[in-house]
């Protein structure tokens, strides 16, 4: 076969040359047109002169370069020193690896969002750099001595003269324990509606009129320095005002009650127990009462860097004086969150209780659950469908149908997997993220029943709240059906255990799965608190398993070697083709 002559010329065709010339001329034309427009608009771009550097014939060039290198080293050391100081101030962050300056991506998101594409282009969001993050220091009075309290809930209740049951004002009935109140019926009991500033004026007035028929109720807003902040911490600015911890609202009636009860005692010290479910704000209430950072609270800004949010694990005591009462003192005992016994029930009932506990008491990244759909089903069963449509600008869907809700949210947010399949899990995470960060403002109203006259409610905080009309215009406002009162048995005799801080291979042992005292799945409120039931332990373990466990990589099976039998000659191959026994098959 004749050889094909190799092409020696690199000359292009006339068509290619003309095409290039046309593109160049078109590019020049567009650039000249843009320059004319900029000149007419007064936008004159001056070319910045490039630094030529130090000439080679300059006699002191080596000295100047050495001084510049020294300045760079000193600047790098100063940056590292400031970084270490900020990590030490943030607390428990110095133990993180060196690459912890940026927020870590959870493996759960990488797995769930695999193959998800958007219907429209999304803006490029750079990673959050936390090297310049520092929370503003609080204007804290000298810290009060904090002493360890009784080892169990029953001992706390036996020692208390007054029991403050702290409730979440957004859904007081769900955070109310009737069993606990019955066990302390012989003592002075009062309910504290914490986080009262997060609900509309009408909701708080109705709940006060409903609960005050049976109990003494105090609506409270914790100090502004203890309120939740932006989940993404901002750089600290020295000119920004310092957070206050002495401006809580609604504490004056509580102090008056303390003074009245203490006057009837034979001693000058009153013992008060703060009890309630996790995330109801017991520690923030104690700090607001003593006007100092006596006990640590959960901060959503610092939790972005810390290994885990802080919750109270054991009882803690703080003694302070009652304002304006002379020598009378009060001992405040902050307790972990209530833990409940599990009643035997079917699978569906356990799922409902588990979802309720997670949504009411959880903290941390609630949207990082491996299976968030069961939580959305619980939200859908209680939320008003029309409010969800207006808040998320969704098309109409059937009340109580979570699949229709998630499909609508996936379309609106452009969450579509390969093949046009809507990503329900991604839509569920958006809803749960808004729930945990507080963007989804929710409120409840008491069930139909006798209540006092709402017009008689004249608390200070009620007049400061916004109405439903104003809150609905400002953002997402969802009316929820109030949940049932918790009737599970409270664990009172089990002793609280101190949280272990040992690490195993860089991971905290039992960080979220073996802990009995708190749910660590993301949180929205600086009003922290503690304690969890067994259903919450299972959910926390599920969330931890999703973020920590890596899929096991198995080696692919070895491929079977193929053997080929070669014919001895053309005649033998002809015989094999005809079916004769000219060659042996190899196995």
From TrEMBL:
Keyword Lyase: no
Signal peptide: none
One Gene Ontology molecular-function label: GTP binding
Biased composition (Basic and acidic residues): 70-89
Region of interest: Disordered: 1-105, 479-587
Domain Guanine nucleotide-binding protein-like 3 N-terminal: 14-88
Residue span, G domain: 271-353
Regions of compositional bias (Acidic residues) in chain numbering: 492-515, 524-549
Pfam hit, one: GN3L_Grn1
InterPro entries: Gnl3_N_dom, GTP-bd, GTP-bd_ortho_bundle_sf, P-loop_NTPase, TRAFAC_YlqF/YawG_RiboMat
Localization in the cell: Nucleus
Keyword rRNA processing part of the UniProt annotation: no
Key words, A-Z: GTP-binding, Nucleotide-binding, Nucleus
Residue spans of biased composition, Basic residues class: 1-10, 574-587
Gene Ontology CC terms: nucleolus
PANTHER family (UniProt xref): GTP-BINDING PROTEIN-RELATED, GUANINE NUCLEOTIDE-BINDING PROTEIN-LIKE 3 HOMOLOG
Name of this chain's protein: P-loop containing nucleoside triphosphate hydrolase protein
